[in-house]
Amino acid sequence: FTITMDNYTAPVLNNPPSKPMLYSPLNASEIDNPKPILVWNASRDDDGDAMLYQLGLSQSSDFTSLYQWYGINNETKPYADRVTIIIE
């Protein structure tokens, strides 16, 4: 999509999506459950772009033992063996 004006064509910039908000558990909280339920609101992208989340979980506050999953989107279903993810 472009805007043309007096023989000048300028690209329309992409707007960033809204920032997701973690509902549960609270940020930096300690969790004893080996299969926690993570709940956050879905980001909204007014440009209609596809969105993916990068989720990082760690057993330490400095994230030296990091677990990562890539490709979590707004249709992601629960991981039965690791963590349940609910995106509202």
Description:
- With 88 residues, the protein is mostly beta strands.
- It has one domain.
- It contains no helices and seven strands.
- The strands form three sheets. Strands 3-4-7 form a three-stranded mixed sheet, with no helix packed on it. The protein has a two-stranded antiparallel ribbon with strand order 1-2.
- The mean pLDDT is 72.
Short description:
The protein is mostly beta strands. It has one domain.
Can you give keywords for this protein?
three-stranded mixed β-sheet; 7 strands
SSE inventory with pairings:
Layout: E1 2-5, E2 8-11, E3 22-24, E4 37-40, E5 53-58, E6 66-72, E7 84-87
Parallel strand pairs: 4-7
Antiparallel strand pairs: 1-2, 3-4, 5-6
| Strand adjacency order, main sheet | 3-4-7
Largest sheet: 3 strands, mixed
Helix amount, in percent?
under 10%
> Which spans have pLDDT < 50 for at least 5 consecutive residues?
none
Give the overall pLDDT as a whole number. Answer: 72
* H and E string: EEEEEEE
- What is the domain total for the residues? 1
Rounded to the nearest angstrom, the distance between the terminal CA atoms is 30 Å
Number of strands: 7
Percent of residues in beta strands: 35-45%
Count of runs of 4 or more consecutive helical residues = 0
Q: Work out the radius of gyration.
A: 18 Å
Class by alpha and beta content: mainly beta
Shape: elongated
